[in-house]
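Consider the tokenized backbone below.
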């Protein structure tokens, strides 16, 4: 088996209706320019409009690279803990067992499809949402399922993970916003001090 190089990103900043804002479009352009230096084979995206548009913009900077939908990248809650951390109780209020099972099934489909070595060397961009990014990172680190909580990521921040046969995944970077100027960083986070 060959190495699968995943470049996982959250979509650009979007409004309450899921449409990319001007900031989100600019963020997507900048991450596209950054990814143009890599031998990208395909850009996969969630079916939700904010991810579709971000992927289209990224694809404009990657001539000849296919931009395709992957249902597994949809925004979803991947894991609902049995014992609720007190700080997260409000987040899961009203979340029933059926919803939790559906989210777990999506999380399994996501890792089954992308979190493994490829048959040939491949470089893939995944344009998704904060929760799937957190789930893939948690999975790569073999952390407990509840650890996805609190692994926040900024809009168009890059997480790079490599998968090789017979070795644990390698996390190369998480939440990398180096392609963004300071005024475009940290969107998608609550207010607080930023480094």
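A designed sequence for it:
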């Amino acid at each position: 088996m060959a190495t699968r190089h995943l470049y996982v990103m959250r979509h650009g900043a979007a409004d309450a209706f899921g449409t990319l804002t001007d900031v989100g479009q600019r963020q997507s352009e900048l991450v596209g320019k950054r990814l143009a230096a890599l031998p990208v084979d395909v850009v996969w995206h969630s079916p939700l409009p904010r991810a579709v548009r971000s992927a289209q913009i990224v694809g404009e900077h990657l001539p000849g690279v296919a931009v395709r939908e992957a249902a597994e990248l949809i925004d979803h809650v991947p894991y609902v803990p049995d014992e609720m951390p007190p700080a997260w109780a409000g987040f899961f209020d009203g979340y029933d067992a059926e919803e939790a099972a559906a989210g777990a099934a999506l999380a399994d489909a996501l890792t089954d499809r992308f979190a493994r070595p490829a048959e040939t060397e491949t470089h893939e961009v995944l344009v998704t949402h904060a929760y799937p990014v957190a789930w893939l990172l948690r999975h790569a680190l073999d952390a407990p399922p509840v650890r996805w909580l609190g692994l926040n990521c900024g809009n168009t921040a890059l997480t790079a993970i490599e998968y090789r046969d017979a070795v644990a995944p390698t996390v190369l970077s998480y939440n990398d916003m180096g392609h963004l100027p300071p005024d475009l960083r940290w969107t998608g986070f609550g207010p607080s001090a930023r480094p």
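The mean pLDDT is 95.
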